[in-house]
Known about the structure:
With 159 residues, the chain is α+β, with helices and mostly antiparallel strands. It has helices spanning 17-28, 34-46, 96-110, 125-133, and strands at residues 2-4, 7-11, 50-57, 60-72, 77-87, 115-118.
Amino acid sequence: MRVISNEVIRHNKADDCEAVYSLICDMESRQLPYEQFRQIYNLQLKSDLYTCLIYEKEGTVRGCINLRMEQQLHHAGKICEIMELVVDGSCRSTGIGKTLFDAACDEAKRHGCMQIEVCCNQLRERTHRFYERQGMHNFHYKFSRSFTDDDDGTNRLGR
């Protein structure tokens, strides 16, 4: 746990689920099915592959970064992937994202990761600029194929 005045960065707990759910629904601009979210959240909480860091200010969760760390064949080493990084809308552009990103990099190094990666929707241009400011490079394309009936081929957030 890292404490900065009245701000704390800590590992998530089971009772953070609703706050993280709210943040991620806001990021995705849609309500996700809570029961499924809660089940996944609790599975990740128990898994050694996942680490979720919480940014808390004055007792309120203001942001989180969710990481997956795993050995990858094509790197012949351990990689940290940012699965989600989200800051409460009322607190964006105040340095919380950078603080969480830096804490995630420290966490990844402690776990022996050789690099940190993130996939980001092409529509999130502001987020792209954030990651570039953190020293990240856009070297990859990510392709996806939906197995749901609502796939019309349109790129939109919340998918």
